[in-house]
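Objective 1b of the project was to move from sequence-level analysis to a structural picture of ligand recognition. The entry below was assembled by the postdoctoral researcher (A.K.) and checked by the PI before modelling. It contains the amino acid sequence of the target and the SMILES of the bound compound, pyridoxal-5'-phosphate.
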Amino acid sequence: MKKSFFTNSGTEADDTAIHAAKTATGRHEIVVLRHSYSGRSATALSAMGHSTWRPLPAQVAGFVHARAPYCYRCPFKLTYPECGLACANDIEELIMTTTTGEIAAFMAEPILGVGGFIVPPPGYFERAVEITRKHGGLFIADEVQTAWGRTGDKWFAIEHWDVQPDIITSAKGLGNGVPLGITVATPEVADKYPGLTFSTFGGNPVSMAAALAVIRVIEEEDLKRNAAEVGAYLRQRLEELKQKYTVIGDVRGLGLMQGVELVRDRETKEPAPEAVVKVFEETKRQRVLIGKGGLYGNVIRTGLMLNSTKDHVDEMIAAMDAGLATV
Ligand SMILES: Cc1ncc(COP(=O)(O)O)c(C=O)c1O
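Corresponding predicted holo structure:
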């Protein structure tokens, strides 16, 4: 992928990718995932798979929503790997039954962020993308949350699977505080983008200088490696909390993108959003701010900075431990 278009947000990056995929293929239907998030425009709101963030019914036609690769709450009540990747295989039936049979793209987050840090199982993207290409579609990896080393060792989270996207979108960590969205595509896709287009502030010098500085620091300080190492330590400490507190149903993630799903009962997996709120009251008291997400609002999303140390992890874990003790 060599050609980029710069905008101001992840929403615009996704909109640009969707537009590019439609014009490059001449097709209009797009497979997206349930539990996904893609932004605030009419197109992005129609694409997302999350009622919490969708105030109106879909206004843009053509999106079909595939079952999420959510192993902890498998939509087919199966277990990996005996499942045979049923969620990926189902995309074929989805295309054959709810579209014209020929799609423009499959757009997915390598880890579903807002959806609660859902990590697809090994082999998922290989199978899903194979089906996508069989039906004429491009693969768009929405890396708005997952790129720039966040998941450890790799620039992009999709590199943890053996697939090549046709388009990648990103934002957030690239600007690291300044507004910047990017859509990068293969020349074959980008060159078919029709007519003239521009974005007033897209690619402005301040945002671009910030992004170059971010990339330079990630390289110079070896932060991809740091995210893998400190992320592994974070994971180990979260697993220890899981041993201690039955309210923790699942710990999952890659690198410094680790989530903790809270449940009322480990057998029934009934979501415990009220427990997350209680944990947050205590962590906030200890001046540690943590995010939450998931369709049921019951997933704690840790968002440590890329240059975090094990001491930062210990500080956060201590606050979470105190919070969990109050539940
Ligand atoms: C995966 C994903 N895509 C797109 C977006 C939209 O980005 P923005 O809020 O910058 O418009 C987000 C925002 O959280 C996101 O997580």
